Amino acid sequence: MNTGSGLKVIAILDYYSSPCFKCILTPEVFIKPHLSVSLSLSLSLCQMDGSVGPMRVLVTGGSGLVGRAIERVVKEGGGREGEKWIFLSSKEANLVSAEETRAAFKKHRPTHVIHLAAMVGGLYRNMRQNLDFWRNNVHINDNVLNMSHEFGVVKVVSCLSTCVFPDKTTYPIDETMMHNGAPHDSNYGYAYAKRMIDVHNRALFQQYGLKYTAVIPTNMFGAHDNFNIEDGHVMPGLIHKTYLAKKEGKPLHVWGSGRALRQFIYSLDLARLFLWVLREYDEVEPIILSVGEEDELTVKDAVDAVVEGFGFKGEVIYDTSKSDGQIKKTANNAKLRKYLPDFKFTPFKQAVKETCDWFAANYDTARK
Amino acid sequence: MKIWPPSEPSLQETDFNCGDTGEQEMTFSLRSCSHSAHNASALTPDLCHHGNTRAVSQCMGNKMDGSVGPMRVLVTGGSGLVGRAIERVVKEEGGGREGETWIFLSSKETNLVSAEETRAAFERHRPTHVIHLAAMVGGLYRNMRQNLDFWRNNLHINDNVLHTSQEFGVVKVVSCLSTCVFPDNTTYPLDETMMHNGVPHESNYGYAYAKRMIDVHNRALFQQYGLKYTAVIPTNMFGPHDNYNIEDGHVMPGLIHKTYLAKKEGTPLQVWGSGRALRQFIYSLDLARLFLWVLREYDEVEPIILSVGEEDELTVKDAVDAVVEAFRFEGKVIYDTSKSDGQIKKTASNAKLRKYLPDFKFTPFKQAILETCDWFAANFDSARK
To answer: Which PANTHER family has this protein been placed in (chain A) (predicted)?
Structure first.
């Protein structure tokens, strides 16, 4: 089929039957053969008023902290008429395998992807297994991005982290700095695999005009987290420990001095922002999703909020022989504020209380 | 290949439980070939590999004097510029040793982008050592157009070769990086510690990151399994059996091809760029001799720059003059300054190499150019272009 402007088009429209559907090809979107025989086609489901029409959104890592938050936000009004949301978990598809990834895409035929799936771990596991974190994540990411391209997915939003930024850097960090030096030695496998998502996105845009992008959250917390004390992250670890300390009538032992500074973002706020990025954010360069620098808190502030959230009355001991990790990793959310000056984050104490309540109510089934 | 399943917590146990299940095989791997007992195998706890690999690595005959015994060396990219040079050094200059088998693999035989084909090649050849040269390679202009393909294809080739080497118990892999993958904003000269310190040049970031990740993979293999896979970092290579394609090739082979044609057709020689860009050129035969030394003697995981010294850095114009002289081209030379120069400067320090091999002699530049031009003229019809 040739368009009036002489573009060559190979379009196979075998799966989308909505009457609202239109196929719009932009000059940058050429179909080029490459080694894996791509049948890539890109469809824009724009309606006359510029809004995005009916979508099929595949959320990889759908059963994790962020996936569950997105699911809740979608079901409570974040989703739109006619949209289909599929929350994929590792039980259904092992994304390290190209074949299983392809099968999942064939089955679900997404138009959009929110890519959250990863091999994730705490400080100590990363330190032991950098090879596995590198290889498994690079395969997961390559499979998801490549299949998305092959299956004509219009947009993919992947998930990075401030922890993959250069170890030696100035603060606050911003979106332009991610590749400017080697990551921290404890998790370079994970860090490089995540950074390469951004490399892949930029190359997809340069070669095919696709605007796949990524977000960079700071420290996340919320319901459905991994609350494992050894392998988990700071907030879920604190919540689990405080719950046990209260239940067993023991002191709460906090690792580190409590002085380390973090910006915490509630998973439900992150989910709302993810949906905005999916629908409205039009850049390939990633975007930091975080509360502002003015809302940076110490670990001690977090401890106090969790203690209050559980009504814990016992002793709190700071074990200063344990590492604080990075003392500071302040991220700049100016880009987010430029787009959404009025976005309101859930007040910290309220978010912590909701999470503690959830954990107490779901202790038996919570991942730990 | 066993793929890590997140839903099976038992596989998250640390390394010490492998002996309990009969189905899992242990990886025996020597930390260093300087151990002297013949056929000794040293099992250390951190080399125990859980998961379904079939890796069994045996000490391939360490002799009392610490030298490496009989080897089966697989050279990927064996038909390329460096592969052919290694083949010549091995076969015609005594670079190979008694009892060694050298296998030169080409893409005609195996597509290393495919994990299955890579495994089949390893099963067929059972190497003890690998020199990994295979890559999707191109000149400035092709890289600029196809960063995605350069990233993905090279990532897969490298992951397949390194991972399959580990699975098949390969004792050592020497991969091939390049100074062109170093950070763009940097101080000079470059040295081995600087490779990851910033973003690569915009023109070839796909290729650059794929190559850098070889070093990441090597370090992680050493950290998790004690394997000492390593890599070399050559500067600008040239020699017989190069890819002389003018659109896609590199500066030296492109110049050689263009000068040959200009002379033959009596037209001017059009050089892309201003001629001011600076490069350190290394002859493929010198590189091959150094590769063999790295394979046999160099014991670090950190890569090593293989290059002539900073004092031997030349401009593209110097290269043009040498090629013109070699072909005795008498026509006009035009520098097309509308075309990109690529990186103006990428001076690399060879101090580390000189620390190990203070007396290594590089072939004089003009002699190397003359040999290459003579080869090209004699082999024009069959040369890759």
So the answer is: GDP-L-FUCOSE SYNTHASE (PTHR43238:SF1)
- The verdict on a CB contact (< 8 Å) between B163 and A199 is no
Complex-level ipTM:
0.83
Q: Are β-strands A155-159 and A264-266 bridged in parallel, bridged antiparallel, or unpaired?
A: unpaired
Question: A70, A59 in Cβ contact below 8 A?
Answer: yes
Q: Which two tokens stand for residue B105?
A: 């693999």
The tokens describing B219, both together, are: 């370090």
Cβ–Cβ below 8 Å for A199 and B209: yes
Nearest by CB to residue B151, choosing from A136, A180, A199, is A199
Pairing of strands B278-279, B314-315: antiparallel
- In sequence order, what are the residues at sequence separation of 6 or more whose Cβ sits closer than 8 angstroms to the Cβ of residue A349? A305, A308, A309
Q: Which candidate, B208, B153, B141, places its Cα nearest to that of B181?
A: B208
Break chain A into its structural domains and give their ranges: 9-39, 56-361
Q: Do A200 and B151 touch (CB under 8 A)?
A: yes
The pairing of strands B72-76 and A287-289 is unpaired
Between CA B325 and CA B312 the distance in angstroms is 19
Q: Which chain B residues are closer than 8 Å to A90 by Cβ?
A: 5-7
Q: Which among B141, B188, B205, B207 is annotated as catalytic?
A: B207
Q: Could you tell me the CA-to-CA distances from B98 to A301, B76, B88, B91, B298 in Å, in that order?
A: 70, 22, 16, 11, 21
Mean pLDDT value across chain A: 87
Asked if the model's pLDDT at residue A315 lies above 80, the reply is yes
Give the minimum alpha-carbon distance from B377 to chain A in angstroms, rounded to a whole number: 33
d(CA A85, CA A113): 10
Q: Which of helix, strand or coil describes residue A233?
A: coil
- Select A56-361's CATH number: 3.40.630.30, 3.40.50.300, 3.40.50.720, 3.30.830.10: 3.40.50.720
Size of interface A-B (CB pairs under 8 A): 92
Catalytic residue among A16, A124, A190, A192: A190
Phi, psi of B63 (to 5 degrees): -100, 165
Whether B12 shows a pLDDT value over 60: the answer reads no
Helices (H), B194-315: 205-225, 251-265, 284-296
Cis check: omega of the bond before B45, within 30 degrees of 0: no
Residue with tokens 């009036």: A4
Q: What is the pLDDT of residues A99-116, one digit of tens each?
A: 999 999 999 999 999 999
- Distance, CA of A253 to CA of A266 (rounded, Å): 24
Measured from the Cβ of residue A11, the count of other Cβ atoms closer than 10 Å reads 13
Q: B41: which residues sit within 8 A by CB, 6+ positions away?
A: B28, B30, B58, B59
**Catalytic annotation present for A190:** yes
Q: pTM for the whole thing?
A: 0.83
More reliable by pLDDT, B53 or A252: A252
Strands A56-60 and A84-87, by their bridges, are parallel
